[in-house]
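Minimal example, chain plus F0G.
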Amino acid sequence: MNDPTFKTMGQQAGRRSWAEPWKIKMVEPIHLTSREERETALVDGGYNTFLVRSEDVYIDLLTDSGTSAMSDRQWAGIMLGDEAYAGSRNFYHLEEAVQTYYGYRFMVPTHQGRGAEHLISQVVIKPGQYVPGNMYFTTTRLHQELAGGKFVDVIIEEAHNPASLHPFKGDVDLDKLEALFVEVGAENVAYVSLAGTVNMAGGQPVSMGNVRALRALCDRYGVLIYLDATRMVENAFFIQQREEGYAEKSVAEILLEFCSYTDGAWMSAKKDNLVNIGGWLAVNDPDLFDALRNMVVIYEGLHTYGGMAGRDMEALAIGIFEGVQDDHVRSRVGQVLYLGDLLIDWEIPIVRPVGGHGIFLDAKGFYPHIPQGQFPAQTLAAELYLESGVRGMERGIVSAGRDPATGDHRHPALELMRLAIPRRVYTQAHMDVVAEAVKAAYDARETTRGLKMVYEPAYLRFFQARFERIPKTNEKGA
Ligand code: F0G
């Protein structure tokens, strides 16, 4: 096993320490399509895995968002939905779960993460203000920009290097951040947008030491910190495994401490919180809560359901509790590391160390002959699907979109193709199949051609953009 975290886990437990702490009670059939069927599906879908029907997918690693398997307890909770318009008992369960495990005082429910991002961006950001963050996330930055904010990346340099083995590649570069405070004036900074783990960097964690120092720096300048807590449980697990002084603490304790250094958080509950839909926003400042509560009724729903059914809030409250259990997180991240280790053993270029929610293939390393303007990561997602029916997603130049000021493509240093692992859904045998499929795509890399974009939507283009394969130079029309 190549990953230092995995070794530590194995050594500590002295066994296959990531074996799942559950058994399977219900199954959903999946089937492998033929190569011809996949070719048709891919062309129909414009070489965009978001535009392929899930029935045409064998192993679906498009996202870990909303794709978790719920437990028997959560399904039982669904039957206890109190579908009152106002004051549903499930809302109070959810509120208590957020307060208990994340530690914030006030909670506003939303239909999913971007609903919460919309509210906080509109309420907190004044047009023209800067929003520094530890790497962008697509929907987060777009909401910040739509509110008039200017996102500035202040993540450490190591995050942009797929080969760097830094244990906390999600850390904020505090010198870069302070330089920004000095340059633009802290009053022109809306807040620090901190994410743990960092999705676009490969699911990389932020250390407790870094968030503590960030708190001290922000206190000196009077700047607030809001946390994207979407995968913060996985971040807490990495702190437990890698940071001195945390090996004996539970994931739940670490999560609570981390959140205590921030002023509030938004959440896509579709990941760590183990539900298929839902989100929330939580803060400590009563005046801000008041403003958010006024806003939620315009865009999401009443402040005691925020776009969710009562039954969804019940499943979410239970999911929060299940999601922070040490044996759950160990097996969840352990499965991701298992797949990563297989690929590392075969010397396939991936982001290292392996992150919390998926494997990120380094498309520049995969296809050095395909320039970034021909979308290497998009190409890799298409090729892997064609090869095997395994579906991943582009996280490179297509996801990065265009600079709103210049209209030019942004060229991110990381050109990645993500294989996100849903929680509690696939088995170790599925991971073996995925590894073999990636190996087959890798073996065919030299003859693989890039793509050109033939349709580009105005916002979040990766969801709906369409592509065509660039013809061979001796093919007609080339
Ligand atoms: N923040 C992060 C870090 C995310 O990964 C996501 C969604 C969101 C916010 C937005 O939440 O989807 O509930 O509206 N990420 C999904 C993904 C889409 O596949 O990584 P949402």
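Residues 63, 65, 112-114, 137, 139-140, 195, 199, 228, 230, 268, 270, 279 surround F0G (CB under 6 Å). The radius of gyration is 22 Å.
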